[in-house]
Amino acid sequence: MKSYSPYDNVEAKEYPNMLIIAGLNDTRVSYWEAAKWTAKLRALKTDKNILLLKTEMGAGHMGASGRYDYLKDIALLYAFIFDLFGIEK
C-alpha cells in the first residue's frame, strides 16, 4: 500500500499546478487526509506552481449533492484552468 500512497510518496521536487478538492462529509477519504497531503506538498515542493486546497463543506466523496451544485464545481475548475493560462475573457 505504501508504494501507491500519495502522502507517503511526496518528495522534494517540482510538482505541477494543483487544485486539491476534499469533501467534509466524505466517508471514504476524510477531509484531513487532503489537508495533510497538501501541507506536506507545500513543505517539500521546490517550485512556485499554484497549490490550492478547497474543502467542500457540504460534499461527500462524489462532490456536492444539490441540484445545481455540480455547476459550481465545474465553474471552479474552469476558473482554475483559465487563471493558469491567463484567460480573462
Describe what you observe in this structure:
The protein is an alpha+beta fold and 89 residues long. The protein has one domain. Helix content is 35%, strand content 13%. It is built from two helices and two strands, in the order E-H-E-H. The protein has helices at 31-44, 69-85, and strands spanning 18-23, 51-56.
Q: Descriptors for this entry?
A:
two-stranded parallel ribbon; 2 helices; 89 residues; flat
Q: How do the helices and strands line up, and which of them pair or pack?
A:
Blueprint: E1 18-23, H1 31-44, E2 51-56, H2 69-85
Parallel strand pairs: 1-2
Helix segment count? 2
Class from secondary-structure proportions: alpha+beta
**Largest sheet report:** 2 strands, parallel
Mean pLDDT: 90
Strand order of the largest sheet: 1-2
The SSE string, one letter per element, is EHEH
Helical residues, percent: 25-40%
Low-confidence stretches: none
Give a quick summary of the entry.
By secondary structure, this protein is an alpha+beta fold. The chain has one domain. It contains two helices and two strands.
